[in-house]
Structures are given as C-alpha cells and as structure tokens.
C-alpha cells in the first residue's frame, strides 16, 4: 500500500518545487498553465523557443503540467500531437503515461482522446500501478473515469497491484460516502476483498482516519484486523497533504481490541510511520504507553527513532524519544546511523541535537563513507545555508571534512552528482585537493568531463587549479574523456580548452 502513496507525496513535493522556481522553459511552469492558455497562445510560446516536449528534473513535461493545472483540453491535445510526446511510449514522472495523469485528474474527455491515439491500459508505473489502479489509489471518485476504462477493455475484477489489492480496496480510503465503493461492487468487485497480506476493506479504509466510515464497514459485516493499525499509521500525515491523523482514530482501533504492537511484513511497527509525520506528539506518547518499541529494527535495520531523525523537524519529538533509545549510534544494514539520516534530510537543529546527545560524528557506513558524504547527499539549492551549517557542525566536532572517502572520492567528486556549480563554490574554501584521484584513478575534472552538459563546470574547475594534464589509470586526459561525452557533442560544446 505504501508503494502508491509515498511516490505521490514526492509528486506533490515536485509540483511545489516547480511552482517556487519558475523554469526557463515557460511551458514547464504550472503558473503559466493556470492562466488557461488557448492553442494559439501555446503556439506563440513554442515559437519563442519553449520546448513542448522537454522533461524537467522531476520528469514532468508540458503536457503533464497542463493536465495537472487543468488547462484547456484543446491546448493539451495540441501538445500531444507534437514530436517528442508519443502517447503510447513516452514515460513521465515515476514512469507514468499520459493516461495515468488524465485518469488521475478525472478528465474522461482527454482519456478518450488518448485512447483514440493508441493509449494502453496495461502500462505500469515505477510503483507497479497501471492507470486504473493509480486513479483509484489516488482518490479519483469520478466513476466516468472507470466507465472509460471499462469501455476500452478493462475488467475491474482482474485489476490488482503487486500486493494483491484491487481498485475497491485502493479507493475506499478516499471514498467519503461509499459511492465509489458501491460503484465497484456494481461492477463485480466484492466488499469482502482482501490483498495478499489479508488486509481487507476495513484496513484500507482505516488509512483515512474516518471513524464513521469504519463503523459503517463494521455494520456491513467487515471485521477489523490488526493490520488496520499499520495502515492507519501509514496515513499518519493525512492523505495528499491533508490534516494529520489524530489520537481518536487510534483510540478507536484500540477499543476494538486491535493489537497496537502489530508489525507488517517488513518489520515496521506503527511508530515507524507515525514518527515521520508532523503534529504527532500525543499519538507517539499513546503508542509508547502501549508498549510499541522505539528500538525495533525493520528488515533494513531502521528503527522508528532513525526515521524520526531523518524526517521529523520537530526537535521536541526527538527529545521525547531519546530517553527510550538504547543506542543513538545504532547503524542500519547499510551502516547509516540516525545522525547520517539527519544530515541527509533533516534540519541543522536536528543534527545539532543528536550530536549534543552523543551521536558519533566520526561514524562511517559499510561502504566507508563518512558523515560528510551524507551532508552532500542532502544538499539542495534551496537549503544551501542548511548544508553550510551541517558541515560546520561536523567540522566543529572534529570530523576532517576534507578527507577522502574510502573509495577515494572527495566532496568535490560527490558534489558532481548535483550538477551545481554553486555547491562546488561552497566547497572551495574548505581547501579540498581538487586534483585528488579516487580509486578509479579519476580526478574531479576527469569525472566532470564524463558527465558535464556544458563547459561551465569544466572551466570552473580549471579556474580553481584542476590540472588538465592529469591522466586516469588508463592514461586518459580530461580532453579525451570530454571528447567522448555525448551531451557535449550534441550541444556543440567545444572542449579544445582542455587540451
């Protein structure tokens, strides 16, 4: 179940990021599509050089952005006729097709257009959901969407995801009055459906936190199961950014005699999910009082406290959990500690708190990466100041942040993955050897020559002392490697300055 909802959260995060940072390509800007441009206006933007098929960093293209903004269908249809927007084969965010997005928005007119151009029902996204299941799981209540699927060959009784959940189970959490559920029943699905793990309609509906809905299901003969505790916890942050689930839903489940300490097949207890969400202090206290273990490791070795350190920016929550944590430096299966996770995705305040309470700044993971590695992993242009603060905290506590990782990669090597000159410039004052070679015999200039999309990154590295005459273990120079870089060749970027 979580496989559907976690990527959706990422999707909304991506859309928010797009809204905050206007892209160079105007057709990738949702703000533009919200102005409801007609076909002629779209043609005018294309004539100015805005690509109608470009994918942004989250793999959304103009057609998808237009669908999500509910722009005029004629404008969207026009985009879908242009080169680079193949309706059958093009995959966008999370490997979703245009049919996924049209169904998600309840746009049956656009669905019919897509079908007329060859759209297929059976293409699964990266989370294993085809358009039918994606629409149900993301709360699409418009039954005309499902009528369209049926009219084009879908048998709802045959549609299940990898967990064995059908559309009725996936959709019931967002179904306020059972209208969608009754529709699915009329199409042959059973209210007594279960997935492979035995989760029934009660368990899936529990994710909504709607006690009245759960009471309604009990009246219909659906029995509560312990798994409902876990699925409710998975919905702790609210569905699609809604109001966080509160204590009453858990108290209700407890009153039914359900086991609060239950775990799922991955070894997660309820707190593994709840601690990641905001405004859950009362709920956390409730589960701790019920004996749920804050130190319980899941199959990957992650404890609820590690998840809190990774995702919860409320340091008061971390403080409330710390007295029950047996080992603040407990590593997971990959050797990451709570501090490593906080460096990658939490705030400087959370990092500072963990260090103050004894987190080891000199811990390394099983690959030999130190904590500076995770600070770089967590860098984003929008939180550059946080990145600086985290590095300074590590440095103040004695970590040599200029030291190479076990494989020889320096922070310069690691920073290349971000393709952000601003990050490299933030690293320059640290005094890292720009000509250091990693275990593959490559300097940062060599690696940049392989991945650069233009000459800016390469010229910057030369300006801070990178030696273009340095050779790899295979006696290749940066010029040799850049000459083989297809992106540079495609963009007609001359690399003669590397000779």
Describe this structure in words.
The chain is an all-alpha fold and 499 residues long. It has a domain at 402-498: Serine Threonine Protein Phosphatase 5, Tetratricopeptide repeat (Alpha Horseshoe). The protein is built from 29 helices and no strands. The longest helix is centred in the first third of the chain and has 19 residues, at 2-20. It is flat and about 75 Å long. Pfam families: Ank (PF00023), Ank_2 (PF12796). Keywords: ANK repeat, Signal. ANK repeats lie at residues 94-126, 266-299, 334-366, 407-439, 440-473. Residues 1-19 form the signal peptide.
How is this structure best summarized?
The chain is mainly α. It has helices at residues 2-20, 30-33, 39-47, 62-68, 73-80, 98-104, 108-116, 131-137, 143-151, 167-171, 179-186, 201-206, 211-219, 227-234, 247-255, 270-274, 281-289, 304-311, 315-321, 338-345, 348-356, 371-377, 384-396, 411-415, 421-427, 444-451, 456-463, 478-483, 486-490.
Low-confidence runs (pLDDT<50, min 5 residues)? Answer: 1-20
Structural class, by secondary structure, is mainly alpha
Overall mean pLDDT? 93
The CATH homologous superfamily of the domain at 402-498 is named Ankyrin repeat-containing domain
Radius of gyration: 26 Å
The total of beta strands comes to 0
Keywords: ANK repeat, Signal
Pfam families: Ank, Ank_2
InterPro entries: Ankyrin_rpt (IPR002110), Ankyrin_rpt-contain_sf (IPR036770)
């Amino acid at each position: 179940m979580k496989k559907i909802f976690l990527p959706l959260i990422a999707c909304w995060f991506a859309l928010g990021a797009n809204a905050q940072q206007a892209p160079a390509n105007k057709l990738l800007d949702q703000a533009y599509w919200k102005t409801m441009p007609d076909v002629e206006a779209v043609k005018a933007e294309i004539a100015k050089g805005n690509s109608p098929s470009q994918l942004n960093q989250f793999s959304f293209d103009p057609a998808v952005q237009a669908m999500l903004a509910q722009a005029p269908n004629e404008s969207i249809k026009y985009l879908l006729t242009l080169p680079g927007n193949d309706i059958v084969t093009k995959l966008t965010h999370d490997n979703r097709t245009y049919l996924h997005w049209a169904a998600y928005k309840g746009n049956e007119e656009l669905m019919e257009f897509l079908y007329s151009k060859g759209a297929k029902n059976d293409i699964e996204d990266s989370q294993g959901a085809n358009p039918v299941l994606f629409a149900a799981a993301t709360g699409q209540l418009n039954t005309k969407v499902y009528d369209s699927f049926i009219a084009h060959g879908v048998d709802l009784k045959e549609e299940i995801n990898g967990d064995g959940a059908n559309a009725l189970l996936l959709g019931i959490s967002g179904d306020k009055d059972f209208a969608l559920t009754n529709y699915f029943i009329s199409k042959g699905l059973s209210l007594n459906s279960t997935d492979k793990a035995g989760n029934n309609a009660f368990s899936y509906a529990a994710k909504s936190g709607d006690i009245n809905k759960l009471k309604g299901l009990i009246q219909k003969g659906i029995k509560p199961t312990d798994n409902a505790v876990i699925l409710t916890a998975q919905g702790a942050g609210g569905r699609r950014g809604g109001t966080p689930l509160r204590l009453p839903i858990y108290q209700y489940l407890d009153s039914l005699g359900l086991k609060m300490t239950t775990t799922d097949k991955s070894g997660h207890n309820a707190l593994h999910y709840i601690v990641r969400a905001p405004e859950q202090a009362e709920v956390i206290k409730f589960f701790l009082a019920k004996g749920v273990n804050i130190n319980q490791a899941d199959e990957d070795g992650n404890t609820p406290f590690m998840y809190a350190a990774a995702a919860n920016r409320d340091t008061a929550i971390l403080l409330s959990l710390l007295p029950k944590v047996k080992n603040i430096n407990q590593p997971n299966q990959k050797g990451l500690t709570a501090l490593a996770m906080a460096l990658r995705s939490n705030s400087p305040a959370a990092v500072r708190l963990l260090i103050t309470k004894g987190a080891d700044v000199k811990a390394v993971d099983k690959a030999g990466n130190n904590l500076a590695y995770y600070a770089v992993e967590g860098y984003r242009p929008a939180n550059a100041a946080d990145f600086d603060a985290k590095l300074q905290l590590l440095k103040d506590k004695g970590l040599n942040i200029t030291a190479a990782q076990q494989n020889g990669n320096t922070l310069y090597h690691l920073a290349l993955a971000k393709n952000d000159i601003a990050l490299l410039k933030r690293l320059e004052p640290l005094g890292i050897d720009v000509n250091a070679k990693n275990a593959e015999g490559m300097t940062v200039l060599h690696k940049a020559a392989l991945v650069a999309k233009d000459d800016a990154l390469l010229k910057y590295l030369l300006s801070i002392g990178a030696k273009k005459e340095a050779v790899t273990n295979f006696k290749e120079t940066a010029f040799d490697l850049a000459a083989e870089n297809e992106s540079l060749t495609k963009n007609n970027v001359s690399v003669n300055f590397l000779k």
